[in-house]
Amino acid sequence: MKTGTIHLVGAGPGDPDLLTLRAARLIERARLIVHDGLVDPAILALARPDAKLVSVAKSRARHTLPQDQINALLVREAQSGHDVVRLKGGDPFIFGRGGEEMEAALAAGVPCQVVPGISAANGAAAASGIALTHREDASIVSFVAGQCKGLAEQNWAGLAGQGRTLVIYMGVKTAPGIAEKLMADGLAPDMPLAVVENACRTNMRVLRGPLAGLPDLVEHHAVKSPALIIIGTVTARADTVLSQMLEEKAS
């Protein structure tokens, strides 16, 4: 029996219009799609009527399947002769564990191809009018996982501040610790930031405030995942840009 191929496909930040052409074609043709919980239902609706959709959604408190079992599922299906679309929110290789799944596939002798997607950071920034780099404000961008183990022990000095933009994934639950950590490592309490919830979707929200107010901002507005925290002076520059974008969209 011919071994199938595992396609690690980036679904982008939510809007189906932001899929790559290759991603859209693979989704439309696939007979088996193993998808994350953050993949928008409108993207899953592109699948053929007889496609088998398997959710392996993860949350901070609950995993439908542990990662090693997801790896085993992908390999088992491919070894059974099935082509598999592993559909992941954003880009497979940016906090998507795509690297782990690719390694598992190759170790088992299963062909694996990667289809990049628009990352959550790029999507959230573009949708909210925030230029992650700007000639006047930032020439360096850093991506950080906000729920990583040992947060307090890490050195975040220099990740944000003059000439830099910091994008934090998965930071809603740990917002108090993130603010405390960044200020302890030297970032000014009044550094502007934006929290972008449900980027590139119809219910997107953009919330702004200073670094010191991040915990209250998240709690007061009951921010839920998926959400990104963007820290840097580029977020303040975007106020006028976003208002113009929203006015144009409304008209």
TrEMBL record:
GO terms for molecular function: uroporphyrin-III C-methyltransferase activity. Keywords: Methyltransferase, Porphyrin biosynthesis, S-adenosyl-L-methionine, Transferase. Its EC number is 2.1.1.107. It comes from the Bacteria. Residues 5-214 form the Tetrapyrrole methylase domain. One of its GO terms (biological process) is methylation. Pathway: Porphyrin-containing compound metabolism; siroheme biosynthesis; precorrin-2 from uroporphyrinogen III: step 1/1. It is an enzyme of class 2 (transferase). Belongs to the precorrin methyltransferase family. This is uroporphyrinogen-III C-methyltransferase. It comes from Aurantiacibacter gilvus.
